Amino acid sequence: MNVGRVTRADDELVAALARLVPQLSPQRTPPGLAELEELVASGTSLFLARDGDAVLGMLTLVLYRVPTGLRGWIHDVVVDENARGRGAGEALTRAALEHARAEGAASVHLTTRPQREAANRLYRRLGFEQHETNVYVWRPG
């Protein structure tokens, strides 16, 4: 398995995300080429896990600066249902954390639903600490 950071958007990436995004969030529309080009140009880090040419999963790392330092959030982690249990989620997360460390991030945050037991075990094993907090979401409309 190979994990790498996406440096350019192409039709192969569009097709891979068209397959993965519905597995993560069925109500969301997968991004097209223009949105992926914008994501790559923005500096947001999209990581892909591959086995040969096959894309097994993805993870997005957003780094941003606030007055208290450089912080990160991991979003949109999904491993193809046919590839789960093979270490792709761990490899993606480790690659993102190493990138965040190299960039000087003071912390990296993520959220996951309690029902995602395997993901929760993985994040604890990788050193994430669960925090008591209220997470609020605002949606326009």
Q: What is the overall number of helices? A: 4
CATH class: Alpha Beta
Number of separate domains: 1
Question: Which fold name fills CATH's third level, the topology?
Answer: Aminopeptidase
Helix content: 25-40%
Beta-strand proportion: 25-35%
**Intertermini distance:** 42 Å
Structural class call reads alpha+beta
**Arithmetic mean of pLDDT:** 96
Query: What would you call the shape?
Result: globular
Kindly report the spatial arrangement of strands forming the biggest sheet.
1-2-3-4-5
User: Helices and strands, in N-to-C order?
Assistant: EHHEEEHEH
How much is the radius of gyration in Å?
15 Å
Tell me about the biggest sheet? Answer: 5 strands, mixed
Task: Report the count of strand segments.
Answer: 5
What can you see in these coordinates?
- By secondary structure, the protein is α+β, with helices and mostly antiparallel strands.
- It has a single domain (2-125), classed as Aminopeptidase (3-Layer(aba) Sandwich).
- It has 4 helices and 5 strands; from the N terminus they run E-H-H-E-E-E-H-E-H.
- It has a 5-stranded mixed β-sheet.
- The radius of gyration is 15 Å and the shape is globular.
- The mean pLDDT is 96.
